[in-house]
Amino acid sequence: MSSSFTPQHSRGHPGQHHVHPGEQQVMDAYVLPTMQPPTINLTTDATTRGNGVDTSMSSEQQAQAAKDQLRNHECTMSKLTNYGSTVPGDFEIENCSLIEKPEQTNGDLKHTLLDCIGYCTRLPLRAPNCDHEKPETIAEKANEISGNQIAFACRCCGSLVPPNCIGIYVHNGMVKVVSPGRWLLRPSRSHWQTLDENLDKNVIKSGTLLVVRVPIGQIGLCLDNGNPLLLGPGSHCCNTGLVQFQRLVDQSAEYISHGPFHLLRVPRGKYGKCWVPQKDTGTISPRLLEEGFHIINNVLFRFDGMVDVRSPHIEHGSVHVLQVEKGKVAKVFLDNIPRLLGPGRHALESVNFQYCGVADMTDQVIRHGTITILRIPLGEIGLAWQLNEPFFIESSGLYAYNSPDFTFVDHVPANEKIIELGAKKILSVWTGEVGITYRNGELDVLDHGRHVIDAATHVFECFLSTQQKSLRLVSMTQDQKKKRAQTRQAAREQYEQKAAAAACTAKKPPGNVPHFTSGNSDALVDTATGVVFGGESIFSGAFNNNNGGNDKKDSAGNASANKDPAKSENRKIENNDRADMLACETKDLVKVGIRADVFYSICDPIKCCQKISYDEIEDLVRETAIATLTNIVRSTALNEIAQSKLPSAVSSDLAGSKNQELQEQIQAFREQHYASASAPLFFDKAHDDFLSKLHDDFYSRYGIDIANIRIESFQIFDEELAESISRQALVTAQTENQLANLAGQTEIAIAEQKRIAEVQNISAEAEAQSLRTRANAENERRIQEARSQAEAKKIAIQQEAQAFAEAKITKARAEAEAVQTVAVAEAKRAELLNATPLGSKMTLLNIHSEMVKECNRGVEKIIYCDPTLQGTGSAFALQTLQSLNMDLNGLSLVGEHGGAGKGNISPKSSSTTASSTQGSPILDTASSSTRASGGSLLLSQVNQSLASKGAGGGNKKISTTSTIAE
Fold this sequence. Notes:
The chain is an alpha+beta fold. Among the domains are: 119-252, no CATH class; 417-465; 478-539; 544-580, no CATH class; 798-835; 840-953, no CATH class. It contains 18 helices and 46 strands. The protein has a 4-stranded antiparallel sheet, with no helix packed on it. It has a 4-stranded mixed sheet with strand order 2-25-24-27. Helix 10 (617-634) runs antiparallel to helix 14 (682-702).
């Protein structure tokens, strides 16, 4: 079903219209409520505090607060909705409140004629009054009006009317009809009109007679006394002269109109567009009739044709039916209010309606009047104007606006280097460059990063690269400089025209200034789009007039050039090679071309931009470098330049000859020879002089670092001089080649001898190494053998010592036990002997005798001592320590008074005296308490002393009968 909204415009406000009471609820579903913005007063009176503006703020802050308040209210009034935030369902565009659904717009649109004036339920057809198969019925019906039959049937005479035909005659001006047969007319006032009017005809017309046969499935259209008449299927006869037949129409026709009668057959899938009078209002209104058979009898009815129900927009007067496909929205104006209709069928009626087409829901921007629905994809930024201020939408999502103060401009990638709209700019300065801007006329250099600029007085100029650049040193004439300036100006104008056209197409606000990158002297690069404008090479003819007089020679020698095409081709190649060379003169006035590049970078962008314009940096570096290099070459002789690699000093003829291998040998020899030269090469000298003259000056004055100069090659422009030098170089190279061959042969012989010597040395070293290895092996074997023998001896000695120690221990243990046993026995015996006096004395005598025998064992001579001298008075009495000491003193004096004679013995001791032929030794006592073993030791020492003196021509032992014992 559909709704019918018929705005009744009055003379008042153009947006006012009348709405039926039953339709008010439907209207409220999609008509935005009227909201008045609040009154914002920027005065500082205390009475204005209730308006939401803090009077304690400054005037600028109050103005900004007022703008923010108005913006928030406008967003509320326009139902601003961000569908990219929290609720997942809100991200679908179908849920946007600005897109109306069919149930919000469809009303009660009528598609029939039930409420129309003249509506008919069935077709008003006149029934047939005769039968074509019975001609007599036709004759009877026709003669009812004209009177009785005048002709009479006759079998033998009269006129014959064939079968399936009727005869028509006139009597007194009236038309009469007869059936088939023979008929005879009466007096002369009657005559035959026709005798064989065939009934197979659908229409028979003769005078006032009209016979119409309407086939089944058709309708006859007639006028009866001027009134429309519809004849149904069958035969119709009329003889009044007031009926006028028009035509036969097929009942299956879509539309049959005959006077006030209208028959409309709407097929399936179609709408019939018509205008019908309504009973309630009496007005004629448009209506779309649905499929079916519609009949109306009204002269005010009008049919305007058929329309397909699948049409996106069906418009018939104030009736509009829109079929919006899924995934699309229809843009319409209803009562001058923009609206978006969602997928489905929308039927509405309004005299103030305008259909503006459809838009795809997947479009990034849907604009319609004040409605803007836009998608911000991830990685893009939306540029728009809101309240006459630039507004950047950086968050991805779906946004819907319905406000006249919002204008969307464009989508731009978020990685664009410059994003600009009005006074607001987002600058992305990449690493290796800086942004040149002017804040209130003062230079402001932006470092790498993302910068947001809101001030209108903060103007962006360009991006300036701080990376190292290479610049080919090629001189330019004034014409070339002028041409380059014209090219840049034309490229700038071309870009501005393109930007203006794009702004008009995208409805961008004017005032966007194009920005260019510096660094390309013959082209302009738009920093926003990356489009290069211009770009025509300005160095293509840099050396057409600076080739050492070659133009004059060519113009004078065209004939020779034509005769030698190869030489002419070589000259063309040579001229092309000279296109990027710098023409200089040496100290000896020889014109040469140098192919050189200078490398520089901007270290202090502030100083650089304050001193010179950014688009003149390359010109300054180029011109200064060319002048410096030209002065260096002018102060250098040609032979000094030729010390370097000389790839271009050879003539073009030689370059194309068969001596390519010889040229390579020349080049290799020069590289080897000049590489070891003590004097610096020209290229190195020019490099050092160039940097010493320009580096510090450019760095301190302009903040530009001249990092390096690369001199690639040079070429002598004078062909005759180049050929002469080439020939001389060829001879020199041949001589040097022969010398090099001889030196090579010598080196080969020396190398051969060195090889033989090295082979012999290697053999000797191998043999010595072999002997050394065998000796080391033998020594190692012997060391191991000796080590094993020593180890075996050590083990044997350890075992023998261990056995001896064990034997000693065992023997000592046995002796100890024997001594203990003997001691026990002796103690028992002494105890028994001590029981009687004689036993004790006998025991003492045995002991003394054993002592004497033991002491005199091995004694050859015995000295008998005077018993009187003994302190004890007995020879067998035990000496005291004092007595022994006296004996020792006496022995020490033996021989002292005898001299060299036989050696008289002067007894000084009461115990022991010894004589010697040569002298007497001095005996010392070892201790004041001498034991028996000590006494024997003392005697042995005395004997040794006498033996050493040689007394009496032989050794003598001294013995004493006095035994020392405890």
